[in-house]
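User: Is it possible to get a 3D structure for a protein together with its bound compound? The compound here is zinc ion. I've pasted both below.
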Amino acid sequence: MPEKKITKAIVCPMCGEMSKADVYTSINPSVTKGVRRRALDGELFAWKCPSCGYSARLTYPILYNDMKNRFMVYFIPKIDHFQLCDNELEEKYSNLRNISKRIVPSFNSFKEKIFIFESGLDDMSVELTKLAISQTVSKKLGGAEIHDGYLSMYDRERNTMGFTYFTGEKHTPYVQTARLEIYVKSKKIVDSLAYKDKKLKGFLKIDREWAENILYRYKRMKHIEKLNKLKE
Ligand SMILES: [Zn+2]
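Assistant: Yes, that's possible. Here is the predicted structure of the complex:
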């Protein structure tokens, strides 16, 4: 699928003038040259009022469709659903299997998903790894609250991945690296507990909440195993 553009009417929040802007609703990095960079650095969402020069970032749903790396990320600002089935899209791509389809509610998670899939990683396992490491970070910082975190580094040769967390009252960034063994362990857990999610149709929201649920189920399973052993 090539790119898709629509014309949007925008009322300037500064001067109240109405103008029109062409915005992408769907982009494909292998079709449109430079669109990946423009999406990642935010240029694609930048808007400037033609009458007063006020600039802002536009937020609207946009589908990032990378067929070469077999993933689609649907950025829908503030979306709250876990699953989104778009019949039109499903039909269009029914012949293409094993494509990871995700919905994300924020620009940061949009960029993160692209980074994860381009790196050839499994985002479910990354999410679980991120959650496990966030607990370590919180302990290190004396129980500080971890608001959110993103995969910010992946170095296969050095066997390392790194996450940037936003911590404490001031949302101070904190970078924590980890060895890939934690990711490999997370992947084993995901493969045994999330195989149903992997078969679900449509676009899924794979985030911290999702990982918390998997981790909870994993701990419960371990607990039951322990009890059963005691019974023997
Ligand atoms: Zn204006």
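The longest strand covers residues 18-27. Residues 12, 14-15, 17, 49, 51-52, 54 surround zinc ion (CB under 6 Å).
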